[in-house]
Amino acid sequence: MAKYISINVVSNADSTVAGASTFGDGEHLINVDQIIEITQAAVGTVTILLDSAVAAADTIVLTASIQSTGAATGAGNVPVNTAGALLKEALNYALTANPGGVKSKCVLGYDQAAATVALPYGNRMYWRDFTQA
Fold this sequence. Notes:
Blueprint: E1 4-9, E2 26-31, E3 35-42, E4 45-50, E5 59-65, H1 86-96, E6 103-105, E7 126-132
């Protein structure tokens, strides 16, 4: 198991998520030793509960979208998730990947949208916001 999970956020400034800015773009690291639980209660968001001595910094909320730019939430922007919890599964996979390594990247794949000629695998998903509170 790696020591950190890397989340790459794209186009945070125009995601329309509260508090978003260009400073939110790029790589964010999560210390694996502090992760207590990963939950997904909505299609486009996942919450990571951390074991932290600082009460104000014990949760991370990640927002995913099928749009790499523009609004991250709202109709036509959230991933299609018909079965399971895609975002939680991606993070759990990253937790167990790269044994003995330093960093494991959590890259999102495709959602579960019906295949079309234009999108034979569904919609590509992107991390659009990383909020620690």
